[in-house]
Inverse folding.
């Protein structure tokens, strides 16, 4: 999945067990979908909390934040509740959505790459952020892209 590609429909359960589909998520505005390797780990917590801390900035741009990992619904709920994240965390236990986005790893201890996709309301990819070690980069870069989209600097 790269800039300009159109994301195909998918449906996964969030941390409450509610089914969430791509078409539903982008209906309300642009979507920042970030893949993280494992809930409750140091790097994933730092990344998710940074997305949480920038909630007002994302809301000002009409954008939603959604995290996704292979963790089961119950683990996603624990992660969300522990850190009061306040946005959907989707469970992709079989890695089907991760494969669709090209972030599924074929080997190693981590199931997915730490990548973020900024998706417009027509389901097209506006930007891709790739960094395994710079946790804050994902939310910060997504905001830059959304500001450019809105004609703001």
């Amino acid at each position: 999945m790269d800039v300009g590609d159109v994301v195909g429909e998918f449906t996964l359960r969030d941390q409450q067990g509610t089914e969430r589909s791509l078409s539903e998520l982008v209906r309300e505005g642009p979507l920042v979908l970030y893949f993280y390797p494992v809930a409750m780990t140091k790097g994933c917590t730092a990344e998710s909390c940074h997305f949480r801390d920038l909630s007002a900035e994302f809301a000002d741009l009409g954008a939603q934040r959604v995290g996704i990992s292979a963790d089961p619904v119950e683990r996603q709920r624990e992660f969300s509740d522990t850190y009061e994240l306040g946005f959907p965390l989707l469970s992709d236990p079989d890695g089907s959505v991760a494969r669709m986005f090209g972030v599924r790893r074929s080997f190693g201890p981590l199931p997915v790459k730490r990548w973020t996709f900024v998706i417009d309301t027509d389901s097209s990819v506006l930007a891709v952020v790739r960094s395994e070690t710079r946790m804050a980069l994902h939310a910060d870069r997504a905001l830059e892209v959304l500001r450019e989209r809105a004609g703001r600097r």
Notes: The chain is about 35% helix and 20% strand.
